[in-house]
C-alpha cells in the first residue's frame, strides 16, 4: 500500500539546501545499492517533478507542480521495479461469513417503517436504537439489551424484515432461546405479529423456527445416524423422547429421574465388578463418606454452631435417650451388624455420646438421627429446642473437631448397606452420598459424577483429558473422586450408546458437531444445516463454551458449502445476531460465561460487525435502574452501559428500600400492594421448598386470596432469584443477600484448563462467582417496575466473605436504607 503525502511536504531537489541535497543523494545511492529504491525511476521522478513544476508558473507554485510530477514518477517507479519477492504467501480468512451486506434498500426500509407505524400501537413503536437492530446490514450484529429494553419485540421485527420484506426463506432461520417457557412465549408473540402483516405462520413452522439449543442439536445428531437417537436428559420422559422439538424445562438443571438413575446404577455396578481399580477407588470414597469432615474449619457454619457447643452438650444425654427410645419403639434398634454401646466422646472438652459401633469395624461409631421414625418427635418435653437442630449442631462440631469416624444414621437401611459392603467388598457396589470440595452439600455419588462431568464438558473440555491435567493433595479424597470419574464417564457414554434406541448426552452431541469436528458437520444434510444460515440468539449472555464451539463449527460449515447450500434461494449468505445483557449472566455455576458477549468481535470474527446498545428501559423507573447498576458496577462488563427509564413507571420514582428482615413488615407491605392491585414477586435466595413454605405462611392472608384465582389472574408469585429471570412485577420483595459462599478448588482448576478468566488469576472460577453474585442482585432488583424492597438478615456477625449488599452506597438517592436509622 502506498502512503500519500501532502503537497506542502514536497520540495524540488534543486531547491533543497546544499547539505540536505547532498545528504539526500547519498541516502538515495545507498538505497539503490540495497535494492530498496529503483534509481532510474526515482531520477526520472525528480526530473519530471522539477520540469512540470516550473512550467506551471509562479501563480500555482512549485509545490503543487512537484506533487503532480511526483505522482507521474511514482507510476513509472511501479512499472519499472521488477524485483521478485520471494516467500510471499496469502493470509488465511478466518471469518465466519462472506463479506456481504443485507440487501436492505432505502425503499425496503421506508416501506417497513411505514407498515410498523400503521400496524403497531404507539407504545410498541421501535426506538432509534431498536431500528438499528432491526435494519442492521452487516453479517454479524450483537445487541446489548438491558433489563426491560423490549428486545423480544425487536427481534420479532427483525424476523419480519428478513422474511416479509427481503423474502428470505423461513427454513433458513433459527431463533434460539434458553428455556421451554421463553420459547413458548416467543412463538406466541411471533405468530401474532405475523398475523398483523397478513403473513400467517402455522404453529408447526413457528415451532421449527424458534428452538432451544438442545432441541436443535438433537436434530443434528438424529441426522447423522440411521437409527433413532434420544438424549439421556429426555430418557424416562416418553413425551419428550418422541418430540423432535422437545426442550429442557431448565437447561441448567441436572436432576436425575428414576429411569436415568437405573441406567447409571447398572453401568456403575457392572464397572465395579469388572474394574479392580474402580472398585478400590469407590471403596475408599465410601469409607470417607461415612464421616464427612468439615474441610473449612473457619466456615461461618462452624463458627456459628460452636457458640452452642456447651448448651447442646448439656442436653446431649437426654437427646440421645429420646432418639434411641423412638428407634427401639419402631422396632429398628438395635441393628444387625451394630454393637449397641453408649459411649462418651470429648470434643473441645465437651461431652457427646454415640449410640454404638459397627461390629466389623469398631473404629466407626454410630449415631442415630431424629425425625425418621414415628415417635421420635421434633421437640423434647418442655423444651423449645428442636431435636433436629440440636443434632445438626452436634454433627457439625463432631465432624470438625472430634477426629473420630462417625456415621450419622437416618434409617436402618443406611447401616445395612455398610454392613453388607464390609462383609463382601468385592461383590457389593455401595450407594452413598459424597460431597465434592466446594459443593454446599452432599449428593449421591453418581449425581456428583454427572454434575462434575457436565461442568467440565460445558466448558468445552473432554472429561478424561481435563482430569489428567488436574492436581490434588495426596490425601485429598477429591483426587480419588476424579480418578474414579475418569474411569466411569467414558464407560457410561459407551454404555448409553449400546442402548436401544441409542442414547447420548446433550454435551456429547454438542461435542460431535464442535468446530474441531468438521468431518461430522460435513455429513449434516443441507435441510438441517440451512436453518443455521440466519441465526438469531436470545439471552446470549448465558451461553457456554461448549455451545459456542458448536455455533462456530456450524457457521464455518454453512460458509464452506456456500452456493451449494443456498442455490435458488433468496437467503444466499449467513448472518448472526445475538441479543442479551452481560449484567444478567447468572449461570456460571453450570459453566456459562458472559465473556463471549463481552469479547464478541474477537470470539465471532466477521468482515464487518454492528454493535448496538438498547439503553431505554420500558419497565422500571430511574431509581430502580440506578440502584441495580450501582450494585453491579464493579463487575466486568461491556463498556458504556447506562440505561434510561422510558416507560409508564418513569413517573414518580421512589428509592429501593432496604430493611432488616422482618416478617411482620413483609406481611403488611405485601398486603398493601396487593390491595392496591399491584402484581407482586417475592424472591428468595436459599432454603428451597422449606423457605418457600415459610414465606407462604408469613403472607398467608394475601397468598390464600391469590390462590383462589385462576392462574391468569393471579398477582402474587413466590420463587427464587434465578427463576425470576425474564419476569417483572409492580412490586418486588428480595429476601436475603446474594453471597459468595464457598471456594471450589476443582472448578478453579477446570477454569484454568479451559483458559477461562484472567490467566494470572489462581482462582478464576471463584472470581467469576464473586462477580456473578452482583449480577444476581441486579437481576432481582430489575424485576421491579415501581417498588423494590430488599430485606436483609440482621444481627449477624460481620462476614469476611463478599456479598452484594456490601455495594449498597450510603449516600445515593436511589437507595433508602432503614438499617442505618436505628
Walk me through the structure.
The protein is of the alpha/beta class and 822 residues long. The chain has 4 domains: 7-80, no CATH class; 109-228 and 522-614, Rossmann fold (3-Layer(aba) Sandwich), CATH 3.40.50.300; 306-425, no CATH class; 622-821, Rossmann fold (3-Layer(aba) Sandwich). It is 45% helix and 13% strand. The protein contains 33 helices and 22 strands. The protein has a 6-stranded parallel β-sheet with strand order 3-2-12-13-1-14. Helix 9 packs across helix 21 (506-512). The radius of gyration is 34 Å and the shape is globular. The model is unreliable at 1-10, 34-38 and 40-79 (pLDDT under 50).
Amino acid at each position: 500500500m502506498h502512503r500519500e503525502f501532502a503537497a506542502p511536504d514536497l520540495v524540488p531537489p534543486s531547491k533543497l539546501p546544499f547539505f540536505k541535497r547532498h545528504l539526500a543523494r547519498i541516502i538515495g545511492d545507498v538505497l539503490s545499492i540495497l535494492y530498496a529504491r529503483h534509481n532510474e525511476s526515482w531520477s526520472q521522478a525528480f526530473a519530471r517533478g522539477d520540469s512540470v513544476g516550473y512550467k506551471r508558473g509562479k501563480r500555482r507554485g512549485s509545490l503543487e507542480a512537484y506533487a503532480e510530477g511526483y505522482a507521474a514518477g511514482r507510476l513509472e517507479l511501479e512499472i519499472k521495479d521488477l524485483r521478485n519477492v520471494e516467500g510471499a504467501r496469502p493470509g488465511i480468512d478466518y471469518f465466519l461469513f462472506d463479506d456481504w451486506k443485507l440487501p436492505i434498500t432505502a425503499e425496503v426500509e421506508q416501506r417497513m417503517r411505514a407498515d410498523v407505524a400503521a400496524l403497531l400501537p404507539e407504545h410498541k413503536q421501535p426506538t432509534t436504537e431498536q431500528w438499528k437492530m432491526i435494519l442492521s446490514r452487516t453479517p454479524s450484529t450483537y445487541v446489548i439489551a438491558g433489563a426491560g429494553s423490549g428486545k423480544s419485540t425487536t427481534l420479532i421485527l427483525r424476523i419480519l424484515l428478513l422474511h416479509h420484506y427481503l423474502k428470505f426463506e423461513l427454513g433458513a432461520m433459527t431463533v434460539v432461546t434458553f428455556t421451554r417457557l421463553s420459547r413458548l412465549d416467543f412463538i406466541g408473540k411471533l405468530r401474532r405479529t405475523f398475523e398483523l402483516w397478513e403473513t400467517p405462520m402455522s404453529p408447526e413452522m413457528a415451532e421449527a423456527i424458534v428452538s432451544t439449543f438442545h432441541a436443535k442439536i438433537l436434530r443434528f445428531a438424529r441426522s447423522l445416524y440411521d437409527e433413532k437417537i434420544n438424549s439421556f436428559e429426555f430418557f424416562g420422559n416418553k413425551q419428550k423422547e418422541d418430540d423432535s422439538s422437545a426442550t429442557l424445562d431448565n437447561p441448567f438443571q441436572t436432576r436425575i429421574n428414576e429411569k436415568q438413575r437405573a441406567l447409571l446404577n447398572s453401568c456403575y455396578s457392572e464397572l465395579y465388578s469388572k474394574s479392580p481399580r474402580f472398585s478400590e477407588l469407590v471403596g475408599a470414597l465410601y469409607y470417607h463418606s461415612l464421616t464427612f469432615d468439615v474441610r473449612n474449619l473457619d466456615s461461618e457454619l462452624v463458627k456459628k454452631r460452636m457458640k452452642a457447643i456447651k448448651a447442646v452438650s448439656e442436653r446431649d444425654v437426654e437427646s440421645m435417650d429420646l432418639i434411641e427410645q423412638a428407634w427401639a419403639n419402631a422396632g429398628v434398634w438395635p441393628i444387625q451388624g451394630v454393637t449397641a454401646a453408649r459411649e462418651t466422646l470429648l470434643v473441645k472438652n465437651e461431652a457427646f455420646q454415640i449410640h454404638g459401633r459397627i461390629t466389623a469395624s469398631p473404629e466407626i461409631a454410630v449415631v442415630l438421627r431424629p425425625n425418621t421414625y414415628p415417635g421420635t418427635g421434633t421437640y423434647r418435653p418442655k423444651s423449645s429446642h428442636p431435636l433436629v437442630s440440636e443434632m445438626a449442631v452436634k454433627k457439625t462440631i463432631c465432624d470438625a473437631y472430634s477426629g473420630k469416624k462417625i456415621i450419622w444414621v437416618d434409617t436402618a437401611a443406611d447401616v445395612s448397606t455398610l454392613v453388607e459392603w464390609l462383609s463382601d467388598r468385592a461383590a457389593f457396589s455401595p450407594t452413598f452420598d459424597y460431597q465434592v470440595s466446594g459443593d454446599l452439600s452432599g449428593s449421591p455419588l453418581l449425581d456428583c459424577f454427572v454434575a462434575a462431568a457436565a461442568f467440565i464438558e460445558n466448558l468445552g473440555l473432554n472429561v478424561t483429558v481435563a482430569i489428567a491435567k488436574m492436581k490434588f493433595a495426596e490425601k485429598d479424597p477429591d483426587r480419588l473422586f476424579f480418578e474414579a470419574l475418569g474411569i466411569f464417564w467414558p464407560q457410561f457414554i459407551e454404555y448409553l450408546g449400546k442402548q436401544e434406541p441409542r442414547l447420548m448426552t446433550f454435551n456429547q452431541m454438542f461435542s460431535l458437531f464442535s468446530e474441531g469436528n468438521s468431518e461430522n458437520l460435513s455429513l449434516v444434510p443441507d435441510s438441517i444445516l440451512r436453518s443455521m444460515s440466519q441465526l438469531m440468539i436470545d439471552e446470549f449472555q448465558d451461553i457456554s463454551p461448549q455451545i459456542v464451539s458448536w455455533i462456530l463449527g456450524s457457521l464455518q460449515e454453512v460458509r464452506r458449502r456456500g452456493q451449494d447450500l443456498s442455490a435458488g434461494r433468496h437467503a444466499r449468505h449467513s448472518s448472526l445476531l445475538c441479543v442479551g445483557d452481560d449484567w444478567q449472566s447468572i449461570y456460571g455455576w453450570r459453566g456459562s460465561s458472559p465473556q463471549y458477549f463481552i469479547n464478541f468481535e474477537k470470539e465471532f470474527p466477521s468482515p464487518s460487525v454492528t454493535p448496538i446498545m438498547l439503553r431505554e428501559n420500558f419497565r422500571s423507573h430511574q431509581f430502580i435502574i440506578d440502584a441495580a447498576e450501582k450494585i453491579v458496577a464493579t463487575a466486568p462488563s461491556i463498556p458504556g452501559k447506562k440505561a434510561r427509564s422510558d416507560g409508564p413507571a418513569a413517573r414518580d420514582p421512589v428509592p429501593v428500600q432496604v430493611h432488616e428482615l422482618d416478617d411482620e413488615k413483609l406481611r403488611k407491605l405485601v398486603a398493601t400492594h396487593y390491595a392496591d392491585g399491584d402484581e407482586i414477586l417475592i424472591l428468595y435466595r436459599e432454603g428451597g421448598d422449606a423457605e418457600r413454605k415459610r414465606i407462604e405462611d408469613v403472607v398467608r392472608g394475601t397468598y390464600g386470596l391469590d390462590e383462589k384465582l385462576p392462574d391468569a389472574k393471579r398477582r402474587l408469585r413466590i420463587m427464587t432469584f434465578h427463576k425470576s429471570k425474564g419476569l417483572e412485577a409492580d412490586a418486588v420483595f428480595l429476601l436475603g443477600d446474594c453471597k459468595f459462599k464457598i471456594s471450589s478448588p476443582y472448578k478453579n482448576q477446570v477454569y484454568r484448563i479451559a483458559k477461562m478468566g484472567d490467566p494470572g488469576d489462581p482462582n478464576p472460577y471463584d472470581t467469576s462467582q464473586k462477580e456473578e453474585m452482583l449480577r444476581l442482585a441486579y437481576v432481582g432488583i430489575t424485576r421491579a417496575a415501581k417498588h423494590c424492597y430488599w430485606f436483609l438478615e440482621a444481627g449477624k456477625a460481620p462476614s469476611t466473605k463478599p456479598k452484594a449488599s456490601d455495594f449498597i452506597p450510603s449516600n445515593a438517592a436511589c437507595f433508602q436504607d432503614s438499617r442505618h436509622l436505628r
